[in-house]
Amino acid sequence: MNDKKPEPIPKKSITEDEKIVLKKIGERLKKYRKEAGYTNYEYFAYENNISRPQYGKYEAGANIQLNTLIRILNNLNVSLEDFFKGM
Asked: What's this model's pTM, rounded to 2 decimal places?
């Protein structure tokens, strides 16, 4: 039996283009949150059982998984199509 551990896969760094897109996603999350009547991101996160610090990072442009984005948009009553329209 081979006891050798597999080499860890190095994390890919985010490109500048990806950073721009993530920033736009964060800005849109903030826009739709405010349109939903939440003036404070922490209140929205708390009310929807999302980590407040992590949600703040999403609005600031942190990398977000698609399933997490879908869950947030469902809480805001926004479709993926509407969210990405014009991007």
From this structure: 0.82
Domain residue extents for the chain: 25-79
- Confidence (pLDDT) at 46: 96
Q: Which amino acid is at 38?
A: Y
Q: What is the spatial distance between Cα 3 and Cα 74, in angstroms, rounded to a whole number? A: 46
Dihedral sign for Cα atoms in the order 44, 50, 52, 54: negative
User: How high is the pLDDT of residue 13?
Assistant: 86
Contact 28, 83 (CB under 8 A): yes
Classify 25-79 by CATH class.
mainly alpha
Q: pLDDT-based confidence at 4, cuts 50/70/90?
A: confident
- On whether the CB atoms of residues 83 and 74 are closer than 8 A, the answer is no
Residues written for the chain: 87
pLDDT at 61: 97
What is the enclosing helix (H) or strand (E) of 43? helix 41-47
